[in-house]
Target: Isocitrate/isopropylmalate dehydrogenase family protein
Amino acid sequence: MPRVAVIPGDGIGLEVMREAVRVLEAVESRFSPGCELVHWDLGADRFLRDGITITDEEFASLSNDHDAILLGALGDPRVPGNQHARDILLGLRFRLDLYVNYRPAVLLDPALSPLKAPGDIRLDIFRENTEGVYVNLGGTFKEGTDRETAIQEDLNTFTGVERICRAAFEHAVKRGRSRVTLVDKANAMPAAGRLWRRVFALVASDFPDIDTDAMYVDAMAMDLVRRPTRYEVIVTGNLFGDILSDLAAELVGGLGAAASANVHPGRHALFEPVHGSAPDIAGQGVANPLGAIASAALMLDHLGHAEAAQAVEEAVVAAVDGGVRTADMGGDRSTEQVGTWIADRVLSG
Ligand code: NAI
Ligand code: MG
Model:
């Protein structure tokens, strides 16, 4: 039975993860054996209490003794600079080399989209998760003067680009999608652009049945708002993927329902809702648990429980269709009411 480390974290992370666990317990009752859930007390409370964010032993145990990690959210206004969140979340992403950041955006109800005629949006965004401008390479010169210069380098390697492109194409084949679109800024950033375009074409040649195209990120931002149904699978670098996936999440009904996977295929995987700890609504029982529950569904699929994953996804759709929604989706249900409804639905099939 797969072992899953559950890290609720901070703020609404605790509230939405309670519901994701409730749904996983329903999955276990119906599709035994499910997964063994191991609760991890990592987050702001622990840091403020013990002065520890995460230890090397904990990193080792999370990576060696578990098949997946399910995380709520990390971030707390009481912790200056959110040091614990950086240590834990970015630490896991980089130390476990979770190079695939997969963020699906599926429109569940056209009324949730800010677009007038959204159509049937189904976007699978593959964001490179370990390189780009987020490696923090560079520095500041003459800081604090009127001659200050800040250099923030953009790291792109053959290996890094190849493996994220391959993950996107493999996903397209597995999910029966017909096209993969590369997004970059090859006109203004030609060195990175040449590498991405060459490697993308190289990988594409291994997948002759999948169509390809390439777009500049500015044009893509515009086109996602104009005609989002044109796109199926998008592969892009760290920065553009970060931005486009927030845009895509908003196009299909908001942050509260957006799910994500951080994966090193064949090795490690961490699943988390896209949203943060939302201190503005924490403790009120109103947070939308759909992002966390949909992330748990991605995890089940990753662990080989495809049938269970589908049952959870269907229950999420049924909840939205039936008006079982939290306030951010125009409903009046609490976090717990939505979670309980979905768990019951999973149980009853
Ligand atoms: P946020 O995602 O926590 O909140 C942004 C806005 O969306 C807020 O108005 C919030 O109330 C709303 N919102 C978010 N999730 C919701 C949900 N499930 N249901 C209903 N409304 C929801 O982003 P923000 O405010 O920028 O960051 C808050 C804290 O979370 C910070 O400490 C930040 O560093 C951290 N954070 C952590 C992330 C993670 O753990 N992966 C990701 C993003 C932010
Ligand atoms: Mg972001």
About this structure: The mean pLDDT is 96. Residues 242, 246 surround magnesium ion (ligand 2) (CB under 6 Å). Residues 1-99+259-349 form a domain with the Isopropylmalate Dehydrogenase fold (CATH 3.40.718.10).
